[in-house]
Amino acid sequence: MIFLDTSVLVAIAQVDHVHHVPSRELWNGCAAKETAVSAHTLAEFYSSVTSMPPGVRLSGRDAMLALETFLRRIAPIALTANEYIETLKSCAAAGLTGGTIYDALHVACARKVNAERIYTWNVRHFQRVAPDLAERIVAP
User: Fold this and answer.
1) Which of 5, 28, 59, 109 is placed for a possible disulfide with 77 were both Cys, Cβ 3.0 to 4.6 Å?
2) Among the CATH numbers 3.20.20.70, 3.40.50.2300, 3.40.50.1010, 3.40.630.30, which is that of 2-138?
3) Nearest-angstrom CA–CA distance, 19 and 49
4) What is the per-residue pLDDT across 70-105, written as a single tens digit (0 to 9) for each?
């Protein structure tokens, strides 16, 4: 199982994105039912692509079409309430604050499916919340 971060999906959907080509190449190799994202990624993707500057911004309808296409191959992974709390406790214990929690939640979902690879364009951020998974966290 591989895990994709929101940053990868955004790059796939935006043809002019600086990371489009390597993200699209990764996507082309993704097999159905062997690729996961956090359930939260769906909301982050929608928010990101519908709030971009005019010219690259997607309409809500187009964002949903992109998500529906992604969902043919990816499995959204949700955390239980206890898993959320454990992730928050882990961040607090490590002194991690602010928006870092969102990266930690993505990593918790990747852990839940025992992802062999975690693809993100925010490698440093993800490695910060999961140094034990540093070798698995890579850019496309």
Assistant:
1) 109
2) 3.40.50.1010
3) 15
4) 999 999 999 999 999 999 999 999 999 999 999 999
